[in-house]
Amino acid sequence: MTTFAELPLSSALQQKLAAAQFTIPTPIQTQAIPPALEGKDVLATAQTGTGKTLAFLIPLIEQLSREPLRQVTALVLLPTRELAMQVNEEYEKLRTKALPKAALVMGGVSEVGQIRSLRQARLIIATPGRLQDFMDRKLASLGQVKLLVLDEADRMLDMGFLPAIRRIVSVLPVRRQTLCFSATLEQSVASLVHEYMRQPVRVALGSVLKPAESVQLKAYEVRPGEKMDVLRQLLYAEKGQTLVFARTKRGTQRLANELVRDGFNAAMIHGDRTQSQRNGALNGFQEGRFQVLVATDIAARGLHVDDVAHVINYDLPKMAEDFIHRVGRTGRAGSQGRASSLVAGAEVLELRNIERTLKLRIEREQVDPSTAGRPKRFVQNTLASRTLTALPGEVFV
Question: Is residue 210 part of a domain?
Fold first, then answer.
């Protein structure tokens, strides 16, 4: 398959794909969509930003269009509200006139509209916790589901959703199709696959424990009190949009407020923000009204913006896998991106542990504190090109 036009899809869906300018499939779409259209279970792992959402939405929409009108026949489970909303947006782009809107089920927003939409939906896009709550209150019926999609399966398990997933799957028909998409295939995900899937077609593209080659990596070793100065200089030098990651909600708040005081158009996303605030920040960033978005790891997977020029780890993540997901927010859809990490004190050792786990070495940049407040000189002295070199005895493929 070299174009979507070659797929055995309804004319209505083909027209929607053409209208959305989806013409050439990505590698994961090329390998995952045909077996999914044949009704086979599919287990797919690939780096973030490779087009996994469309890889399950196309066969899902095609199956819904072929089914007679009935109760819910498809269910998509995702780890975060942001990701659920973005999958719903992609569904709306491709939804044909014959299909109703999806029921978007997630926490942080009013239940009333969600409960109403469940009564007529044939597709539910949900986070596990809120859907389990609706099931326990007998507000959601899943007995007719023929297609289950587990998106970002590893992240859902990391976030503690396994009990909710088990509760949900326990009421689904045994004879169903299951599509599982994950950035990593850890033991917990492998166990889930063994339990819930039937001879799945395995799709694995590239290393899921390495950054994409389109992302330039760099680390700045700084003194503990210099991080903010270095961050400012990186932002002064960046013409495109920048996503800055902090480890805590309080740190995210403080960082965003300080950047706003410095004159940057900055917004923030973290777990204590209301859904309306999170939507406003994300939409503003996607539309280019905010130059900088400061976020906790809630955005490491649930954020899909194609033109993020630069990802900055103001704080390093706790897990090496989260480093992959963070830097995967840039360099998407074939574009080039940059990812910088600011490390001070004990974080130098944390970065070495991340490198050891991911089997890579990131070029270090020493920062001259005397350049603080002088953007041009800082750019000339420190913004060198990234070099990604293998550790002794290793080869990148």
Answer: no
CA angle, residues 55, 50, 330, in degrees to nearest 5: 145
Question: Residue 189 is part of a domain; what is its CATH number?
Answer: 3.40.50.300
More confident residue, 392 or 124: 124
Per the CB < 8 A criterion, the answer to whether 147 and 75 are in contact is yes
Name every residue whose Cβ is closer than 8 Å to that of residue 375 and which is 6 or more positions away in sequence.
Answer: 233, 236, 237
Q: What is the pTM of this model?
A: 0.67
Backbone angles phi, psi at 266, to 5 degrees: -120, 145
Domain residues for the domain of 170 are: 4-205
Is residue 332 located within the same domain as residue 254? yes
- Phi-psi category of residue 130: left, alpha or beta, with phi > 0 → left and psi -120 to 50 → alpha: alpha
Please, are residues 180 and 42 in contact by the beta-carbon 8 Å criterion?
yes
At 381 the pLDDT is: 38
228 and 200, same domain (yes or no): no
Determine the straight-line distance between the first and last CA of the chain, rounded to whole angstroms: 24
Using the 8-state DSSP alphabet, how is residue 101 labeled? P
Three-state DSSP class for residue 362:
strand
pLDDT, tens only, 143-189 = 899 999 999 888 888 788 999 999 999 999 999 999 999 877 777 78
Question: CA–CA separation, 129 vs 105, rounded Å?
Answer: 9
Q: Is residue 329 within 8 Å of 183, Cβ to Cβ? A: no
